[in-house]
Amino acid sequence: xxxxxxxxxxxxxxxxxxxxxxxxxxxxxxxxxxxxxxxxxxxxxxxxxxxxxxxxxxxxxxxxxxxxxxxxxxxxxxxxxxxxxxxxxxxxxxxxxxxxxxxxxxxxxxxxxxxxxxxxxxxxxxxxxxxxxxxxxxxxxxxxxxxxxxxxxxxxxxxxxxxxxxxxxxxxxxxxxxxxxxxxxxxxxxxxxxxxxxxxxxxxxxxxxxxxxxxxxxxxxxxxxxxxxxxxxxxxxxxxxxxxxxxxxxxxxxxxxxxxxxxxxxxxxxxxxxxxxxxxxxxxxxxxxxxxxxxxxxxxxxxxxxxxxxxxxxxxxxxxxxxxxxxxxxxxxxxxxxxxxxxxxxxxxxxxxxxxxxxxxxxxxxxxxxxxxxxxxxxxxxxxxxxxxxxxxxxxxxxxxxxxxxxxxxxxxxxxxxxxxxxxxxxxxxxxxxxxxxxxxxxxxxxxxxxxxxxxxxxxxxxxxxxxxxxxxxxxxxxxxxxxxxxxxxxxxxxxxxxxxxxxxxxxxxxxxxxxxxxxxxxxxxxxxxxxxxxxxxxxxxxxxxxxxxxxxxxxxxxxxxxxxxxxxxxxxxxxxxxxxxxxxxxxxxxxxxxxxxxxxxxxxxxxxxxxxxxxxxxxxxxxxxxxxxxxxxxxxxxxxxxxxxxxxxxxxxxxxxxxxxxxxxxxxxxxxxxxxxxxxxxxxxxxxxxxxxxxxxxxxxxxxxxxxxxxxxxxxxxxxxxxxxxxxxxxxxxxxxxxxxxxxxxxxxxxxxxxxxxxxxxxxxxxxxxxxxxxxxxxxxxxxxxxxxxxxxxxxxxxxxxxxxxxxxxxxxxxxxxxxxxxxxxxxxxxxxxxxxxxxxxxxxxxxxxxxxxxxxxxxxxxxxxxxxxxxxxxxxxxxxxxxxxxxxxxxxxxxxxxxxxxxxxxxxxxxxxxxxxxxxxxxxxxxxxxxxxxxxxxxxxxxxxxxxxxxxxxxxxxxxxxxxxxxxxxxxxxxxxxxxxxxxxxxxxxxxxxxxxxxxxxxxxxxxxxxxxxxxxxxxxxxxxxxxxxxxxxxxxxxxxxxxxxxxxxxxxxxxxxxxxxxxxxxxxxxxxxxxxxxxxxxxxxxxxxxxxxxxxxxxxxxxxxxxxxxxxxxxxxxxxxxxxxxxxxxxxxxxxxxxxxxxxxxxxxxxxxxxxxxxxxxxxxxxxxxxxxxxxxxxxxxxxxxxxxxxxxxxxxxxxxxxxxxxxxxxxxxxxxxxxxxxxxxxxxxxxxxxxxxxxxxxxxxxxxxxxxxxxxxxxxxxxxxxxxxxxxxxxxxxxxxxxxxxxxxxxxxxxxxxxxxxxxxxxxxxxxxxxxxxxxxxxxxxxxxxxxxxxxxxxxxxxxxxxxxxxxxx
Length: 1358
Hints:
Radius of gyration: 39 Å
Keywords: ATP-binding, Membrane, Nucleotide-binding, Transmembrane, Transmembrane helix, Transport
Main location: membrane
Number of helices: 48
GO molecular function: ABC-type transporter activity; ATP binding; ATP hydrolysis activity
Helix content: 55-70%
Organism: Neolentinus lepideus HHB14362 ss-1
Structural class: alpha+beta
InterPro entries: AAA+_ATPase (IPR003593), ABC1_TM_dom (IPR011527), ABC1_TM_sf (IPR036640), ABC_transporter-like_ATP-bd (IPR003439), ABC_transporter_C-like (IPR050173), P-loop_NTPase (IPR027417)
Number of strands: 16
Largest sheet: 4 strands, antiparallel
Shape: elongated
């Protein structure tokens, strides 16, 4: 019949395609595919159909052979069986019809029919199992349908095949997230129920990892469409985005709404229900083992008398119970892992999206504290935004995802406590309630300690934020620190912050240990009170069948209390993360002000005021605050022309450019005030401070725009980059590195261009075809050069008002004439005519991240002693057993166990704190002491990962992992020895289990290491993308490249998500198999004790089984902890090994006493250079060739040359920041014979890009409190700060003025003046100025240098 149906169906399909074209055939084939699902899904349906037909045939045969054809009510003695057989025929006829429908109907209806088929078959199988299979496990029952003989067993086999085997091995059908954008399904999405729940779909990954040295990312399972960041964002942002009208008031409830109501999976809310079901199943299966052990011990005690169930049933239960429980808990963990990974992706994207809106310069930044390392709480709360976001998407995000198992605390723990008490009551009667009363009385004690622990954890997290902020800032200005020779002092300051953090961490650990000890003792007090009541008051006798099951449950209760107080601090950390504060606050202060546009396309302002922060104009500012205000009555720029903006330093020129696109807070000066910037034709923004992507030169030029060869060549030519590109071996494929370290100052920003290049830019670019017809707003101090191309000009005053505006020729002045140069500049700036042979050269700069290929002893003694006590009731009358003596001995054992554990753990924690201190100190010393070249090659985000995420692992997870691993191994060994002494036959299966477990562990470890390495490498680019974007979010918003930024970020998040999901599934793969191994070991031992060992005592058998259950559980923990310990601590790619890698990075020469110069040195500024060569890398080309000169004391030496000629490289070589050869003498001593800190602390350089620290201006000028305020004010005045400030103005800069990280709340010119003042305070004999006044007006720059020269540096050279 089946063959006839298939042949008919094929004929129908063939007929439907006859006479049609190829397209019609394809459509028909697709429909046929939909009808039969996929080929892999069709075969199980046919198998189910065959099983149903066979069952129908057996039922019909049984009916006719057993009852004939008489089906009437005239024979009541046989009517029941006849009707039952007839009902079987109807049932299997119905299932056959359902199977036929599942083959012939369309996809959706076919699934409905198949589900109904399985439900009917499963119901029938359960009935047969109860009536005919369970009686086989009893002494007093027989199968109800045993008379049917082989037909009964064939029916049960077919039912098992149709109801159990076929459904669990049938691959699941892939349901795409978006039906219109179907992707290749992952093995996880199409795995059968059996494969899914035992995670065998990960077998290919494990197998592949064992065949290669390193499993590459491309061989990992693909990313499921439901995990794709684009889909996650689409579904979650309506509930989480701060600007969404449907956003929840709190991010926690928003996430609940996302995973309950959203369509991240069609039935995701059912998966939440499934989580609860799995936890309940796990909780129930926990009691199968102690109950089965109790029944086996009763069988041994009574010799099998009065037993109703055969022992092999309880032996099978010892395997099936833990196995089912393991499947349940691994399934729960799988679901929580899915939610955690998706939450991580969603929050990362959410923080990124919100950071694209926030106003970075709204606050002053992170306070580095005073010289002694302390800082006021107020300034510490106002932390640096970049450090805050780094901490947000690393430590805080980890804390949030750690809280994914909240159901363990809310459902699992209470349920297990209730079931434990019920179980104890069933065997110890009313005495269990006495122990429960003791536990309730003692329960407030750990609650009080947990409350204390909460407060200390909050403080510890605050100290961690302070340290992370300090590390972030040090890394951001590390080049300046090295140039000034501040490595040691900055290291000491950071060490003070680290020491304060470690104090709070140690306090947390001690309270945690106290809490653990109390939680360990409370169930033991409960147990003691119960046993005392049971034996002394109730005068009952203890037996092995009572002691060992109750001991197991008491241990479960202890572990549950430990779990409660372990997870409580995790949820405390979730509650105290910065993320909640960040998204709970109003977005008004953060989001960019929308542009107030009039009805015209004019570019300009009308009755507009702008400030850094949103505050009323009448508020008074403290000395630490500067409330600069830009006030414009009317300003309309000339469209299609070059508009010039100039004025003194700090007058608001850059402020005006940032206000126009809405980057500043807008305050209308009148009801009709507005500002407007049409964006229909696009906006380009070139910031005064250089910002480039950590990418190739070509990608930086394009910045997401499509590549047009002709236009690209024209841009390179007009920007005078042809000659520069020829200097790089890889041309425009050269990576520029972070912050453009490969490029010179002039190659990054206009202000640092030499005079000839500036002339080229004016002639070729500003007067060229690319600029013609565009509206250009040009802020510059080079008026003679820029005025020749400007049509309109605006002159700013120091108080933020417009001084003059109008035609450039009138505003700038008639004296502004075009700069004249001598000679032709074509030879320097046109591309060279030499035809170099083409060669493939890599322009890669950034180096790839290196990817390298319980209680101890006492618990066993306690269990044995209780078994020995129980055995006394078997060998002598109950009245002869001295209960007080046994109770006293047991209490002593408990006390010794608690004291020894506390002492050993406290000593361990002291050692872990010492190790954390040393590792952090060595790490920071290594990073601070490395070379500039290494810093150029290594992204800051990668360094930040070492200093934040890896240090966090070192402080917490790694320390606890090491402790738990040591406890587990020692406990496992003690239990193995204890079992082997009483049951020597256990040695062989125990050793085999360890060997097999080790084999599984090695397979797992190879795959885990590869995935962990890939995960580590995938995480850093996500952080790097944050850093790159936040450093100049203004440019991203101006160019409107947010979409490109999101696309790149989502690609990085997807890569990380793909690796993380694989890692989580791999952990579940090993966990399930180790649980199965442990359950098999326990059931094997039970079978031996019952059937093969000659008359064992119940106490010894109970002790062996109790130890075997504990040993089986410890195998999994020991293997997982060992692998985690290796991954976290011993192998590269994670935590300790990654920190160790950074301890081996290239270092600058160490400080030695033999290289300390005399006390009088330097007495003059004499500098002599002989045959100096320099290069940036050992295998790189020389950038300086045979330089020789002599600068005498007091001389002023000017170093000139075109952009990229090596001016800055010369200064770096004199400070020994790059590789040099030749001789440099400073005041008669060769500089290579001096310690670097001695050399650099006696020289001062003001680099092209001035860098400032966050904190007050006083801390920037004198970070180590070595000078008084009078000296600092004199330096500011001599540097020219007074020339650009107005008397009695709230906008003036004072020593108490708060400086944002990097000086972001100051103009470039103001930063250069402060950098000059800082240099004057050092009073070095040798001063280098590298374009130090490029952003200061020519007039003010000249005044500043003359004043500084006369008053502060009379004997300096530079």
